[in-house]
Amino acid sequence: MSAGEEFDAGIRCMLMRGGTSKGAYFLADDLPDDPASRDELILRIMGSPDARQIDGIGGAHPLTSKVAVVSPSTSAEADVDYLFLQVGVDDARVATTQTCGNLLAGVGPFAVERGLVEAHEGETRVRIRLVNTGDDALASFTTRNGSPLYSGSTAIDGVPGTGDPIRIEMLPGARALFPTGNILDRIDGHEVTLIDNGMPIALMRAQPLGISGQESPLELESDPTLTAAVERIRRAAGQAMGLGDVSDQTVPKVILVSEPQHGGAISTRAFIPARVHTSLGVLMAASVAAAVQIPGTAADAVAQLPGSAQLGIEHPSGILPAEVRVGRDGDGTWWATSTTIRTARKLFDGTVFPRPHSSTPVRSRADKEVQ
């Protein structure tokens, strides 16, 4: 029996929508211990590489080709560990260099569903260690009769319908908010703010790139001059932020900002990195919201502060509310914390069957054949 074949009979899996993303949630004990074997199995489960992911449960888009791996925490300060896997759609790649704040919304309820955390009548709070980044988050959500409550009246832009609110508080970490030590850097002739409040981003104004910042994701993705410029900036930003060669990584994200148009504090378009987010990731919003409140950043000139802790971050599908506090230590070092409200929903719970092993190379032909 070759590596991974013992899992071909099926693996426990829960598909969940977390925030504005969707992904497969697994217990770590149900997957191979070896990262390479685990990633090979995940690719077969999700149906990658294939632009349609037709032979797996992936949704043919980076926002729906995600995996959360959850286990009891190895840290005495947390309840569970959450490892995020970004699965390539039309390439055989599983990335662990970033985390996902949207799938994070489903981790607490999933931990209760799988019995890793005991539910309390009324509200359950789960402290989560984000394995990819080392950060800690506190998720609070409603539980009744030992189970998470998914139905409710809270709406989030980018998701139809409503759900029960999940409050996610990112706790203060040890990483520098500004990895280069600068509020503003110059990259490829552009002023860029390199900031990490849970997600490393390169934030810059849209107008110097020859766009308004109000274009649709498809318009931005279809502009080869723009996408090439964004990728040059992203790779240089990765080096400057100490991330090394990021050509094969999904971080940092490049976020273009412009004046708000719909009552928010700022408007955004996020490259993730090649596709443009149809909404905005939770931790991307937290990093943007921190930059909005600090004088001299690339966001400062176009932002409109509301005078309260909660900021509306505009994106192509609406507005994401982010409650971010910033402060400065005596030595001048900036810090930030963030709280966001998300919803999540269990879509199915059962057994997933990975694509069988193949003796021939896997190729994606979806761009050439449509049946």
UniProtKB/TrEMBL annotation:
Region called Disordered, residue ranges: 352-371
Signal sequence segment: none
Keywords of this entry: Isomerase
GO MF annotation: an example: isomerase activity
Pfam family, one: PrpF
UniProt entry tagged with the keyword Glycosyltransferase: no
EC id: 5.3.2.8
Domain of life: Bacteria
InterPro entries linked: OMA_tautomer-like (IPR047687), PrpF-like (IPR007400)
Entry keyword Ribosomal protein: no
Similarity annotation: Belongs to the PrpF family.
Stated name of the protein: 4-oxalomesaconate tautomerase
